[in-house]
């Protein structure tokens, strides 16, 4: 419910279309803070935020430069948020005061996904971090697996950097696609938001449907 309200606000902001200098002065710091916050607390739909920023950048007077800045800000923010969350998680592993952050991370990782993340981490190491950033709901289980494996912060950061770059590029491309299809910025933002929501929610809905189907099948077999 909260995510839908945030997405609606993004579309409303795009409708107003302030001056280009105002967009840059307010938009880039807001983009950075929203992505960092969304990395720490998985409530803000950060992919939609980046895609919306890319749509707005397309309609500015120097789109290549604006898109480059959006990419840089989004990548840095994603990396910063991931490293901060991992640092807080390591405190949770090592101390009682940080246990609340560790519990919060654990709440966003289904047990079966955590088991898969741990197995993949053992087989592929740092490369798993890049893929986890691109998969919907894949980041938290892999991060938790790294915490349980007691990876040092430096090792985690080596994977978090390329992962942030790949993530920012992916959602910026979604925004470019949505923005290029419509003449008005708000229309492109709406298209990009809808597309990112579909991408982020479809896997979770599919897993839920599979679990329900498997549960019904077991019930029929035992009944």
TL;DR of this structure?
The chain crosses the membrane at residues 31-58, 65-88, 163-182, 188-206. Residues 53-175 form the VTT domain. This protein is mainly alpha-helical.
Major sheet, described briefly?
none
Helix content: over 70%
Poorly predicted runs are: none
Give, in order, the helices and strands: HHHHHHHHHH
Indicate the radius of gyration in whole angstroms: 19 Å
Q: Overall pLDDT, averaged?
A: 75
Share in β-strands: under 5%
Oligomer: single chain
What structural class do you assign from the helix and strand content?
mainly alpha
Report the strand count: 0
Shape, please?
A: globular
Report the end-to-end length measured between terminal Cα atoms: 37 Å
Number of DSSP helical runs: 10
Describe the 3D structure.
This protein has 10 helices and no strands. 85% of the residues lie in helices and 0% in strands. The model has no long low-confidence stretch (mean pLDDT 75). It is globular and about 60 Å long. 37% of the residues are buried. It is an all-alpha fold. Helix 7 runs antiparallel to helix 8 and helix 9 (153-181) packs across helix 10. Residues 53-175 form the VTT domain.
